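Honest question from a wet-lab person: if I give you the sequences of every part of a complex, can you actually get the arrangement of the whole thing, not just the pieces? Trying it with mine:
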Amino acid sequence: MTTHPDPRFQAAADTPAGQLARQLYGLASVRRELGKVANAELPGHGFGALVSVRKREHARVSDIAADLQVDLSVASRQIAGLVAAGLVERQPDPADGRAHVLALTDAGITALRAAFLEMVARLDQSLADWAPEEITQLAAGLERLATSFNAVAATSADADADTDSADQEVAA
Amino acid sequence: MTTHPDPRFQAAADTPAGQLARQLYGLASVRRELGKVANAELPGHGFGALVSVRKREHARVSDIAADLQVDLSVASRQIAGLVAAGLVERQPDPADGRAHVLALTDAGITALRAAFLEMVARLDQSLADWAPEEITQLAAGLERLATSFNAVAATSADADADTDSADQEVAA
DNA sequence: AGAAGAATGCTTGCTGCAAGCAACTATAGC
DNA sequence: GCTATAGTTGCTTGCAGCAAGCATTCTTCT
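Yes, you can. This is the full assembly:
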C-alpha cells in the first residue's frame, strides 16, 4: 500500500528490534499449538505450573504465581487442579502454617515428561532440516531474550506500579 | 534447582529440540506483555487482525481467519470491533455480494504504526546490551521457525495449495 | 431459460474456559 | 490485640469455538 510513507515508522520497522517484534508476534500460532500439545493431557493450563513446581524444591503457591507472572488466584486454581489430578502434592509447610509446600508426585513427573516429549516430538517434525547447532543457538537466543525482558519487567515493577506513562520513547 | 535428579527427564530436556521447547514455553510472559503493549489502544486483541488486513490488499474475513489460524467467528468479531473503532473499512465486494472487502482506514494505519512502535520501544528497553546482529540473527531464526512450523501445520491440517502472496510484512 | 438444491461467506447466539479483582479465612509476628 | 502475609473462593469479564442461521452464488437438471 504505502499510501503515506512514514520515515519514522519505516526506520523503526527496519530496526533490529523492529524485525524481532514482527517475528515475536508472528509466533502466536506456534506457541498456541505447542501449548495445546503440552496441556492436552493436563488439567487446565497446568503445564507451566507443573514446570514451575519442578524447578524449585520448596515451592509455594505464591512462588509459582511469581514465576508464571500471573495472579495468585490463577496459580492457586492451577495447583488445585494438579493436586486433584494427583500430579502435585501439597503439604502444610512445617515452618509456616499458612503456607503449603508443593512437590511433584511420581505421576506428576511422569505426566510432565510425557507432555514435554509430546512437545519435543511436535517440534521435531518442524525441525527436521535444521542442524542441531542451529536449534541450540535459537534456544540460547530465546533464553537470553527472556532474561533480558524479564529483567526490565522486574525493574519497572520495582520503580512504580504505574505502567502507562513511565516507559516509552517512541518519538524519534 | 533440581533436587531429585531425574536422568531421563534431563536427557529429554537436553536435546536441541528439548531446549528449544523449554525456551518457547518460557516465552509466555514475554509474548503476553508484548501483546498487552500492542493491543493497549485497540479493541480486543485486534493487533493481529490489523496486521493481517494490512498484509493483503483485498482481504476478506475468511482470509484473516486463515491467516491468524483462528475460527472464522473470532475473526468476524475482531474485524467488527475494528470497524466499529473506525480502523478498518468494510465494503461489499463488488464481485461477490456475500463477501466484504476489508481495508485499513487512515486511522487504522496510524493506530497500527503506533502499536508497532510501542512494541519496538518496549523491546528496545530489553535489548539495550544486545549487538544489532545478535538481534537480527534471533529474528531470522524465529522467522525460519515459524515457517517450518506452519508448513507442518498446513500439511497435517489440510493439504491446501494456499501459496498466495508472501507473508510476514508488518511494514509497508 | 429457469428453478431447485448445494455450496460459500459471513454473522450471531450459546457455551466453556481461564484470568483478574475483591472479599474472606487462617496464621504469623510484633 | 493489630497488622501483614499465604492462600482460597465468589464474582465478573473477555475471548475462543461450535453450531445454527441468513444471504448470495454456483451447479445442474429438465
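Two things worth pointing out. Residues 27-127 of chain B form a domain with the Arc Repressor Mutant, subunit A fold (CATH 1.10.10.10). Chain B has eight helices and two strands.
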